Structure formats: C-alpha cells, structure tokens
Amino acid sequence: MSTTHSILDSLTTAHRDRLVALSSPVSFPAGARIFDAHRTATRFWVLDRGEVALDLHVPGRQALVVQTLCAGELLGWSWLFPPFRWQLGAQAHTAVQAREFPAAAVRDLCAADPALGQEFVLLCAAVIGKRLHSTRTRLLDLYGPFGVSHGSSVSVGGPEDDS
To answer: What's the whole-model pTM score?
Structure first.
C-alpha cells in the first residue's frame, strides 16, 4: 500500500493485514474503463494513486460523472451484496495504481472471521452511505427543480430513506 491514507487504515492491523494478503497490485491507464453498471462485480480496489470517475448512464445523454475517487478510497462495493452487479460505472480519469481484491475470497474471509467481517462491512456501509449522498446531490444539482440546492430540505426518497 502507498503512504497515502487508505480507507483500510481504519481497520485493526490484523484485519487489514489479512485483507491485504488477498490483494494484488494493478494499474489502469488514463481513460481505461474499469467496470460498467449492471455487469457482474467480481472484485474491488483500494486506490493507491490516480483518480477514478464513477458514472451513471443516463439514456440519451453522455454518462454522468457522479463522483471522482482519489488515492486511499474504496472503488466498488457491489461485490458485497447479491446479485453482485455494479450500480455505477467507473473509468480511470488519470493513470491509476491500486490494490485489487477478489470478491469471493474476501466474502469467504469475512464469513470465516465474523469480527473481521463486521468491521469490514461497517466500513463498506459508511462508503455506501457517502456515495449515495454524493450521487443524490449530484443528480439534484443537474436535474432538480430550478432554484433547489442540495442544502435545502427537498426529499429524494421516502421518509424511511434517511441515509
């Protein structure tokens, strides 16, 4: 892992070491498509260097970038929940170096070690919550009613959607 703060730094050293042992270094050139929405999610990455744009396909329009990820961030969480399909797409904005993790092996490790599993799933849940908020905000900025800012009290989901 690089010297950049990594999302994995919040895990206990033992859990982080067990997860990282499953990973391998990869790189993507600028412009490389890393994954597309609705395809099977079989891996995930922690970025060491570079930037990745998360995008949403909007029919009749160019893909909408909803968030850009940087070094230290988790790329991909759809591998964690059935049906294991990507919710967004991802493209390398710059040259990227990352640690790639095999999803099935990580799910097996989490199942075999419930303490590690709980710690890692909670970490992923925090990422999911931030991504959902970022995506909602971006969509409101682009498609919301005129004059509505993301700081207003406009509700995108129902009352049960407090994420």
So the answer is: 0.81
